[in-house]
Predict the 3D structure of the following.
Amino acid sequence: MEVIHSPDDARRYVWSLRSQGRTVGLVPTMGALHEGHLSLVKAAGTCDSTVATIFVNPTQFRPDEDLDKYPRSLDEDLEQLKNAGVKAVFVPDQERMYPEGFSSYVEPPEVAKPLEGICRPGHFRGVTTVVLKLLQAIPASHAYFGKKDYQQWRVIEAMVRDLNVGTKIIGCPTLRESDGLALSSRNRYLDPEQRRRALLLSKALSKTEAEFRAGETQIEELQQCMRRTLLGLDNAAAATVGSEHGSTPIQGMDKIDYAAIVAADTLTTLSSLDRPAVAVIAGYIGKTRLIDNRELNIS
Ligand code: PAF
């Protein structure tokens, strides 16, 4: 597996493959890899070659966020990518991505405005900028993004469409632990009690989806259902994630940023469930911010 540090070397490497008519699948990551990332590598396996990137992008972190604390495990990451059959990894350093005098940013599309756009202003500007830079260095035929970061996937889809980037964006399903917790590099920050409470996110989504399948179509009702579960007020759901030593009901999430049902394409508020929708949640367990979502397909 080649480890490439410069954008020019990366571009030469990818063009040498593409000029032979080969497809190249890109898996962009910030490292601290887990099975969720490896599932993206697996999905990219339908391309002739897979290239991954590892770069903890400072411009998508807000000053009060966990950039310095963000987990870094480069050697293990490279080993995992090699074992997964990745042909090359682009690992630029900070100076190569943001050299002195850097001042050009990508204005994110409309779909970046709600939800994370409100809670984390500036975040998507950092994401669109770095992803466009990665796509310039790795002009892949396909790029793979997890739907766990649902809004990020939609933002990148829109940016690529709007700016005529020739890479096809593929959204891949969220990978979960056997008890339902969505895989995330941030899960490692959770202590055992917080890890149990983190299950409230997937429980809330499952409960909401079940109500929807059972015929509940009132968005307000479904959102209330999500919030009740997240706050630990739904006794049945709370009991299933109860304390280690019994079924003492647990405390809910410490802060809910949003728990909403929105249009699956624009992520804007819906007045009725008459088109594909997605239930989205973001909030805190302790100091750890978690997100999760569930698509609600209208048949
Ligand atoms: O999802 C991530 O890991 C990051 O936001 C990405 C897409 C690699 C850009 O830094």
